[in-house]
Amino acid sequence: MSDPILLISGDSFSEQERTRLETALASAFVAGPSDMAALPDAVRSSVRAIAVKGHHPLGGAEMDLFPNLGVIANYGVGYDAIDVTAATERGINVTNTPDVLNDDVADLAVAMLIAQCRNMVAGDDLVRSGRWSAGENLPLNRQMSGSTVGIVGLGRIGREIADRLAAFKCDIHYTSRSRKETPGWTFHASPEEMAEAVDILVVALVGGVETEKHVSRQVIDALGPRGIVINISRGSTIDEAALLDALEEGRIAGAGLDVFLNEPKIDPRFLKLDNVHLQPHQGSGSSETRGRMAKLQLANIEAFLAGDPLKTPVN
Ligand code: NAP
User: Fold this and answer.
1) What is the tens place of the pLDDT at every residue in 169-226?
2) 230 lines ligand 1 (CB under 6 A)
3) 64 and 44 in contact (C-beta within 8 Å)?
4) Are 48 and 6 in contact (CB under 8 A)?
5) What is the tens place of the pLDDT at every residue in 90-136?
6) Cα separation of 98 and 28, whole Å?
7) 143 and 40 in one domain?
8) What's the family (predicted)?
């Protein structure tokens, strides 16, 4: 192998994704985030690109291990694990994979909301367990169509969620840093104000320090007993302890969550609750979308190495 120019790093690349990168770029090698410092100097000096997947932090200290690094290409739209400020200070480009995953993530948000309102997991269990054929029925549940829903963060994914829920005849409210052009949806200046006006909150914010606990204890309390929280963003965007307290005490009706703090080792309090629908951070997890994300990650690395404009730059 010639000098490796590409470091493939992260805990969750599939065999197929790794092979694709290795085949496309002849001189690539794999090293986990914690193995980087142990690489020989000559190897580290030859690295010009890093392809990353997963949520392991990548900060200035790691970047400094690679003096000729020019691009960090993230697999995923959320790049909160990468210190973009540190990358910019070092002249390192960061890229991500926006838009190609919007539909899948929005689909999952709506699916979790319907599953929660219609008690679908309990319904499945009733049928499988034989209790339905023995005469037991599912208690009446709650209509989802026509609900009053607030989207926290009307960005690319938030917009897709809102469009879907509008087709379900929902009354759409949203909060973002700026007012958007919408078909008459109600804007709120803060999540606190919005939570007073809606039953259901769908969180579609970016992660990172700036949005930490943006959905605060006060926001959760303002939702009231019919409140449902759906989160497809990052665990950090919600005050998770406050959410757990409200769910345990029945102060809100339920939650549908694809993201958590400390995932996959999530707070065990969630596992004891029957008013939550839990998913294993699989928002973008269809083979079609993951294929598009992998292709876009590779296209960014190839563009960088060819000296062409990056496809989806972050900084
Ligand atoms: P986006 O288009 O950048 O939208 C992000 C939203 O967050 C925008 O509405 C933005 O507000 C808001 N925001 C950003 N910084 C903020 C701040 N400091 N305070 C308040 N609001 C802030 O991003 P996207 O493509 O929709 O992706 C959103 C996130 O979804 C990603 O960052 C990622 O964490 C998550 N995600 C999860 C999965 C999954 O598998 N569950 C998959 C993909 C993405 P403005 O509208 O005012 O700019």
Assistant:
1) 999 999 999 999 999 999 999 999 999 999 999 999 999 999 999 999 999 999 999 9
2) no
3) no
4) yes
5) 999 999 999 999 999 999 999 999 999 999 999 999 999 999 999 99
6) 24
7) no
8) Belongs to the D-isomer specific 2-hydroxyacid dehydrogenase family.
Q: Which of 112, 179, 205, 231 to mutate to test the pocket of ligand 1 (most atoms within 8 A of CB)?
A: 205
Contacts of 34-37 spanning 24+ positions with Cβ under 8 A: 36/7, 36/9, 36/62, 36/65, 37/65
Residue 6 in this model has a pLDDT that exceeds 90? no
Distance of CA 263 from the midpoint of ligand 1 (Å): 19
Q: Quick one: 298 and 222 in the same domain?
A: no
Residue 70 makes CB contacts below 8 A (sequence gap 6+) with: 48, 49, 91, 92, 93, 304
106 and 91 in a common domain: no
**Among 33-47, 88-102, 129-143, 237-251, which stretch is predicted with the lowest mean pLDDT?**
33-47
- How far, in Å, CA of 280 to CA of 160, rounded? 21
Residue 65 contacts residue 36 (beta carbons within 8 Å): yes
Tokens of residue 27, six digits: 């001189």
- Say if ligand 1 is within 6 A of residue 98 CB: yes
The CATH number of the domain where 247 resides is what?
A: 3.40.50.720
203 CA distance to ligand 1 centroid (A)? 9
| Beta carbon of 257 within 6 Å of any ligand 1 atom | no
Contact 205 CB / ligand 1 (< 6 Å): yes
For residue 124, what are the domain limits?
Answer: 102-278
